[in-house]
Design a protein that fits this description.
This is YaeQ protein. This protein has 178 residues and is an alpha/beta fold. The chain has helices at 37-49, 89-96, 110-118, 134-141; strands at residues 6-16, 21-31, 55-57, 69-72, 78-84, 101-106, 128-132, 147-155, 158-163, 166-175.
């Protein structure tokens, strides 16, 4: 018998002074049995750091051809393709050919990915690559529950995440194209 996804609920207060975004969000996120807690935390953080109208979670790791997050305009056209982790350059090439903005949130090998993409990916100079702190992701992953109450403040690339009364601090850093 196949294992089913775990549904995790996130009540989030988002204060992103870098982008002028102040929202209260209630998200329900399905965690596939093969999805690590670190990946799930990175996926939720990417969702918060890119928060905008029309942004949705993809179908997850079980849908191999869909990214972690997609943003559509009012006509249903994909405007942003957002990956989490270490996608292949062929996947990034495919995404960039859609004409959508392509964003990647990774926690290891970001510079190597940027260098590899430079000679292979269509519109590689337009890729937006961001590095998240792996220790920060692991710390937050250790606090996951089925119901999560988060308060995230973003300022100057620093992330301040309060989870159940505990403060976790990390960074998100833009990786320059190679």
């Amino acid at each position: 018998m196949a294992l089913s996804a775990t549904i995790r609920r996130f009540s989030i207060t988002l204060s992103d002074s870098d982008r002028g975004v102040y929202e209260t969000l209630d998200l329900r996120v399905a965690q596939h049995p093969s999805e690590s807690e670190r990946y799930l935390v990175a996926r939720v953080l990417a969702r918060l750091l890119q928060h905008d109208e029309g942004l949705e979670f993809g179908k997850g790791v079980s849908a191999g051809d869909e990214p972690a997050l997609l943003q559509h305009d009012l006509q249903g056209v994909v405007t942003s393709w957002i990956e989490v982790g270490s996608p292949s350059v062929s996947r990034l090439h495919k995404a960039s050919k859609t004409g959508a903005r392509v964003v990647v949130y990774t926690w290891k090998g970001g510079e190597a990915l940027a260098a590899e993409a430079a000679g292979t990916v269509h519109r590689a100079d337009a890729l937006e690559l961001y590095a998240l702190d792996q220790p920060f992701l692991d710390e937050v992953a250790g606090s996951l529950d089925r119901n999560n109450d988060w308060s995230l403040a973003v300022a100057g690339g620093s992330l301040y995440l309060e989870v159940a009364g505990n403060m976790h601090q990390g960074t998100v850093t833009r990786i320059a194209p190679a």
